[in-house]
Design goal:
Strand content of chain B: under 5%
Strand content of chain A: under 5%
Order of helices and strands of chain B: HHHHHH
Number of strands of chain A: 2
Number of helices of chain B: 6
Largest sheet of chain A: 2 strands, antiparallel
Structural class of chain A: mainly alpha
Strand order of the largest sheet of chain A: 1-2
Distance between the termini of chain A: 46 Å
Number of domains of chain B: 2
Radius of gyration of chain B: 24 Å
Structural class of chain B: mainly alpha
Helix content of chain B: 55-70%
Helix content of chain A: over 70%
Largest sheet of chain B: none
Oligomer: heterodimer
Number of strands of chain B: 0
Order of helices and strands of chain A: HHHHHHHHEEHHHHHHHHHHHHHH
Chain lengths: 503, 162
């Protein structure tokens, strides 16, 4: 069995004492920061990314994977305890999780989220290991036209997930693509839109955009309304473990959530968020057992299923990144940035040219998931304490970490001036009701899209039909078109708006 | 004609202007043809698309009725200015400001400056508390970033370290 050989190689790499420590530290830091209200995985990874620069590539990626899981789990903790989503995908967890917390059942809710996530993570890792190799074969069949179409599909997928107006989300993507083009054009060497500023010829760093828009924009917005009536249910967390009845209800929900998550995570643009929403919708459709709490009033299935989906989805969303080199969401876009910093070009060649890294990363994902359970179940009490830290102490610290993180990427104050500018943009986006995630995705994909468009068109000698005459490319574009049409159908449209109304 | 959605109107306006600006800027570079694209081709294409999308958003904001006018609401200038200022001040402390003859003051001074100014943005400001917070953050950052991660920061003012 090649799969087991590969996994053995991976575990051999990941199971060094040093790497285990990095995985642990990553999970710890990720949870610690991800648990802060309003700080999602994107902001957490962006903030902690500089801390991994000094590490060797494998260790750095292992630590980042740990940070990612930690941040995601931390986000669920906040959603359940204070009814504040740390990230979009914990919005659904909030619905039933917070109600459970209000009834003094925060412990079982947190445990359900943790155990469900762990199971889902294990399955997701196995799927990733099993399908990565065959999918890489497919990836080698991809020409520039296919890559371009896949990116279109990915971006459309991102739009579908953005809250609010579809039109505005598409515009944000295009704006992101344009920002990604700032800097030196690789083909001609022309510095575009750089206004003769030498620092701009290298383009704008993605960390600057991520920190400015997600970090500063969010903080300014949070400070603009008073933190009045947020109830925190710290006193009432009693009894950590779910009862036998809870387990009975939970297990099928976890299984369903895991299945949905693994499937949707593979789709570019799908990922964790869509998976969580779909899983919750399906749970709601399944019949309630007699005596079960209705959904929206603290049903444990409403926590277990979306959390499992969310986690297996975030696992399988590594597949398009590792096999095709295309980041399916903003978090993976940051991972691309991290890999590039360590001189790894994500894509199908990673598996052959760098098998230790590839399989080591996959093994470390499982380790990361195990760490999460080990770390979080006993420490739930401490996370709850962290939530009682007043925001007036918290936000200066977040501003500081953003500033240090930005400065340390290039040891250059220019980046600090730029992040200030993007902080203003970030606040403006929030005021205008614009979702920033599509912008970041577009920003990362901008140069890649242009490159592949140019190559495809060069090969076809300027014939635009190349994108629909090649079967793979045509089916990807068709999928994108179907996705767009489905979202615009009136029935789905109202459901989608309903789902995002909480945000 | 009345603006039905204030948020959408200004968002659309922003997209239109930015798109047009990018498109105009792109014409300054060699555009080329479909088969042989110059550096201006893709930005020009995207700029036009963005401007068109922006116009569509403006159109929608004037036509589609919303319940409450979708007001942008008050801008929170105090946190906006203070948070951005705190960040800028941190940069000035690290890099110095030669134009007014300020030498680089280092990380620790930067942390204190940032924390104090940022804290002013909150609803409560207690100097003692903020100074304690700055001290904790300084110690923590020194330990984590300088000692553990060995990042390259000027820690102390340049006239002390030489």
């Amino acid at each position: 069995m090649e799969l087991f050989e590969n996994l053995a190689l991976g575990f051999g790499v990941a199971f060094t004492f040093q790497n285990l420590i990095y995985a642990f530290v990553g999970c710890l830091l990720g949870t610690l920061i991800g648990v802060l209200p309003g700080v999602g995985p994107v902001a957490t990874i962006a903030m902690l990314l500089p801390a991994t620069y000094a590490l060797p590539p494998v260790a750095a990626l292992i630590m980042l994977a740990g940070i990612y899981y930690g941040a995601q789990y931390g986000g669920s903790t906040t959603a359940i305890l204070v009814n504040l989503p740390g990230e979009a995908s914990s919005v659904v967890t909030m619905i039933d999780g917070y109600q459970m917390a209000r009834k003094g059942r925060a412990g079982p809710a947190l445990a359900a989220a943790g155990l469900g996530s762990f199971f889902a993570g294990c399955v997701g890792t196995l799927i990733l290991a099993a399908f990565a190799a065959p999918l890489t074969e497919v990836a080698f069949k991809f020409g520039p036209a296919e890559y371009f179409s896949l990116m279109v599909l990915g971006l459309i997928g991102a739009v579908v997930l953005a809250s609010g107006s579809l039109l505005k989300a598409v515009a944000m993507i295009v704006l992101g693509l344009l920002m990604g083009l700032i800097g030196t054009d690789v083909n001609s060497g022309v510095a575009r839109f750089s206004f003769e500023i030498p620092e701009l010829t290298d383009g704008i760093g993605f960390i600057i955009i991520a920190m400015g828009v997600f970090g500063y924009g969010e903080i300014i917005h949070n400070l603009s309304h008073k933190a009045e009536d947020r109830e925190v249910f710290t006193g009432k967390v009693k009894g950590l473990f779910p009862s036998a009845q809870d387990f009975k209800n939970m297990i099928p929900a976890v299984l369903r959530g895991t299945g949905i998550g693994s499937l949707l995570g593979i789709l570019p643009g799908g990922g964790a968020l869509l998976a969580a929403f779909a899983a919750y919708t399906i749970e709601k459709k399944t019949k309630l057992k007699p005596g079960e709490v209705p959904f929206g009033q603290g049903n444990i299935r409403g926590v277990a299923s979306p959390e499992s989906a969310n986690n297996s989805g975030s696992q399988t969303s590594f597949i398009p990144l590792l096999t095709l080199g295309i980041p399916p969401n903003a978090v993976m876009a940051l991972m691309v940035g991290a890999m590039t910093i360590h001189n790894i070009q994500p894509g199908p060649q990673v598996m052959t040219s760098n098998p230790e890294l590839f399989w080591g990363l996959i093994a470390s994902m499982w380790i990361g998931n195990a760490m999460l359970v080990i770390l979080n179940l006993p420490l739930i009490g401490i996370w709850i304490k962290l939530l009682t830290v007043p925001y007036r102490w918290l936000f200066p610290a977040i501003v500081l970490f953003c500033a240090i993180g930005v400065y340390s990427t290039n040891n250059n104050t220019w980046d600090i001036w730029m992040v200030a500018l993007f902080g203003v943009f970030g606040y403006m986006f929030i005021k205008l009701g614009l979702e920033p995630a599509p912008l970041l995705l577009g920003f990362i994909l901008g140069p890649m899209m242009e490159e592949n468009l140019r190559r495809a068109m060069l090969l076809s000698r300027g014939d635009w039909t190349v994108f629909v005459t090649r079967p793979l490319s045509a089916s990807l574009l068709a999928a994108a078109a179907i996705l767009l049409i489905v979202v615009m159908l009136p029935a789905i449209k109202s459901k989608r708006e309903e789902a995002f109304v909480e945000e | 004609m009345q603006i039905q959605s204030q948020k959408d109107f200004f968002a659309g306006l922003m997209f239109t202007i930015v798109g047009a600006a990018f498109a105009y800027g792109a014409t300054g570079y060699q555009v080329g043809t479909g088969g042989r694209m110059g550096p201006g081709y893709f930005p020009l294409l995207l700029g036009v698309i963005l401007a068109v999308l922006g116009s569509a958003i403006i159109f929608k904001s004037l036509v589609v009725r919303t319940a409450d006018g979708d007001k942008i609401g008050k801008w929170a200038f105090k946190p906006l200015i203070l948070i951005i200022a705190a960040n800028l001040l941190f940069g000035v402390m690290l890099g110095g400001l030669p134009s007014i003859g300020l030498p680089p003051m280092g990380l620790i001074a930067g942390i204190f400056a940032l924390t104090i100014v940022a804290s002013l943005a909150g609803t409560e400001f207690k100097l003692k508390e903020v100074l304690a917070l700055s001290t904790i953050l300084s110690l923590g950052s020194y330990g984590a970033f300088i000692l553990l991660l060995k990042m390259q920061f000027p820690v102390w003012p340049i006239f002390i370290t030489g």
